[in-house]
Amino acid sequence: MIQASYTQKELLFKKPARTSRGEIRSHQVYYITLKTGNKIGIGEAAPLKGLSLDDRPDFEQKIASCCLFINDGFPISDLDLSEFPSLKFAFESARLSLQHQQPFKLFENSFFAGTPIKINGLIWMSTKVQMLTEALEKAEQGYDCIKFKVGALDFDEECRMLESFRKRYSAFKIELRLDANGAFTVDEAQTKLKELSRFDIHSIEQPIKPKLTDWMQELCAQSPIPIALDEELIGVDNALDGFKLLSVIKPQYIILKPTLLGGMAVADEWIQIAQKQQIGWWATSALESNIGLNAIAQWCSTHKPLLPQGLGTGSLYKNNISSPLVIDNGYLAYNSVLSWAAADDL
Known about the structure:
This protein is an alpha/beta fold. The protein folds into 2 domains: 3-98, Enolase-like, N-terminal domain (Enolase-like, domain 1, 2-Layer Sandwich), CATH 3.30.390.10; 110-345, TIM Barrel (Alpha-Beta Barrel), CATH 3.20.20. The chain has 11 helices and 13 strands. The strands form 3 sheets. A 7-stranded parallel sheet has the order 5-6-7-8-9-10-11. A hairpin with a 2-residue loop joins strand 12 (325-328) and strand 13. The longest helix is centred in the first third of the chain and has 14 residues, at 85-98.
């Protein structure tokens, strides 16, 4: 019989993380633990404030009721998690790890065996000088793909920052991605995209707010920079509306965040939908601790990704869970020589 329990942890950022939606100093996460015999499975539920569908007051109450449901002998598959995507991801991760002797192993694949995944270096919003300094440091650290969060600074300042970076590193050396988090208005988006295209940008995530389908369709058709949908996918029932959404908007890429979409199986379905329409994709963590990041990285590795993935957020926290996850030379790797924190310490 499976026994379920949970704990919570407040992750503290080394420095405030800024996006066009505001500043984040800490992040509340929950760890789901499943036990049967001498085996343990662990998953992470980490809804993002103001963005996740399950960012709601009764979230912890829902976790407690799910654990009680399982402890009363009912199967995990009978849980109704349709309105709780991050919790669905957590139970999915815990069930997968429960199938292995090691609680932090979810899949038999190359990542767990030591083959690294190429990732982008993430530059959070700050001052122009600070962002440029961090980007140049990332380049020196071996990243050949760097992503800037944009939309909070004065637009001319952001352009000057990108111009300064491009004077040091051409598109042949460093690929640049942008993430606007919906910061541009529909009236200014096309003009700003044209201006940004001067800097040889690989792609831009969510230039305008989600649910502006007609405007996003027009942008994707006319933008000189390939567009990736991110927040646009949140809350969409991919089985019912996923194919239609992508066929109407016709983005060049989609961004997959299992915590926000409802798990890895749902992300697999989005990949299938996208591939049928020749739409590219990459996965991105959503500020999970190393527990959730490990699950996403192992899942991502099953697809043998060719593009750099957005899996570099583990180093943001000063009190993250100790783990074998390491970043080196623009790659995320699983170093089995290193140890996880004890499961009982979560």
